Amino acid sequence: MRALVFAGPGEVRVEEVPTPTAGAGELLLDVGANTVCGTDVRIIRGEKTAGIDRGVVLGHEVAGRIAEVGDGVEGFAVGDLVGLAPVVTCGTCHACTRGMEQVCPNASIVGYRIDGGLAERMVVPAHAVARGNVVKAPREVPVEHLSLAEPLSCCLSAHRTYRVELGDTVVILGAGPIGLIHTQLALRAGARRVIVSDPSAPRRAVAESFGATTVDPTATDLGEHVRDATGGLGADVAVVCIGMPRLLADALGIVRLGGRVNAFAGFPSGATAEIDPNLIHYRELTVTGAANSRRSDYRDAVQLIADGAIDVARLVTHRFPLEQAVEAIEASASGDGIKIAVMPTL
Ligand SMILES: [Zn+2]
Ligand SMILES: [Zn+2]
Question: Which cofactors must be present for this protein to function (predicted)?
Fold first, then answer.
């Protein structure tokens, strides 16, 4: 079969690999869609290598249909539509036993250590099947929408940490796929107003279509805009959805007394940010992080997509065949589209 293989830093190509089968306890998926994200861009450019095994098949936002059910696996049948939560945790470490499995230091991640979804088929290892990482969805859900359960689950995990309350003003810094998901979650949670800041006009237009108001930060001072919109108080919540360290300082400066700031985006390794620590001290701000998601978040994400409660259809703007997986990842970096799906059956 064909698959996108990581041969080494900056060396990524579609090549022929042995077609896998499902062993005992395993599931084999016919991949329907694997959406690509900023992490894949960093991998093909050779900027991210830590934790990625040479020879691994890339792709961690995967959905497909069950092709084979391994011996001893219950609850799945050939043809079931499923999504895969890509973080396969140990279940026994300090983090896992304290409700923080999303940061399990022993986790194996699909597309990093476990062969991923940028392939015609993929095997879900027995440990992942046993841990409940494979989640069924109603068969009518478009498979490239179901792939977005992964980024949605990460946003849900963060959303629960930074909280949005009825009537809140929420500022989203960045209108990429992640910012646009946080925007929808905030509005559904009862935010009175969501202000999205992004220099891209097409992306701002999508945010507006969801009900947000938008700001072009290259033309308007975001801090001033937020102060004007809130009678000088500041926003209740600010979510940093682009990995630019200075945005963290911006976010701290635009929230109200007792406001909440979430550093959702990953920053380049070794990055530092200059912040005014007294903003946190005197204004009693709460600053939270975000990394991956729990299996429960993933299950909730599948449900929200199946129910149509979060509009993912508007986020999937491009579809590429598997042979063009590298081009698909490059296209996602160009910022033309929002979310790009690689679909082996195209
Ligand atoms: Zn991703
Ligand atoms: Zn663990």
Answer: Zn(2+)
